[in-house]
User: Fold this.
Amino acid sequence: MTSISRREFTPSERQHMLLDFVADFTTRHGFPPTIREIVKHTDFTSTSVVSYNVNQLVERGYLEKEEKVSRGLRLLPRPAEGDTPGIINVPLLRRVIVSPYGHIPKTGLRQSIPVSWLADIPLHQVYALNVKSRLMYDAMVTPGDVIVLQRQHTAEDGDLVMVVIDPKQETRIRRVRFEGDQVRLEPVLQAIQPQTLPCSQVQVVGKVVGLMRQF
Assistant:
């Protein structure tokens, strides 16, 4: 039997979907899904098919699985081949990802960031955004800056996140404070007044991990 080495292994489209689902489920519920829940909410056809793919991802270092525990899956950060020790490369995009579905597209462009920024963040959820607009001046972000984001669509009170605001679909960086069915959006630049809106008008599209700036 021919084995696939760690270097040669690349997750398939369905395995990326599985990783995305585990990440999103864990973020929303605070605990990982069971194998049966993965089958129920994805297009995998059986628990055996899911288990096979999970075992492949565990073997290659994308997932950790605690045996004999139904909610024993955990995503692991995994550096790409060729990364410098202490530095990791993430996809560099020109547009923020708004959709909660699918995996982060591969454009061929990469941004180096410190591994320490990831902490417990799964690597496949992280990407860098090359800022071209001046509309983020109120977050002290200027054209040419690179924002590092964790792709997620929920937020905890006090998180610094990227949001899309209806009805004009404006993309902004704000610290969020929840007040019942409303959310208070606080700019980083304190000279600008906060804005309070119904939660239904604000879509969280990512959590800010860090900012890269070249002087």
Summary: The chain is about 15% helix and 30% strand. Residues 66 and 72 are 5 Å apart (CA to CA). The first helix runs from residue 13 to 29.
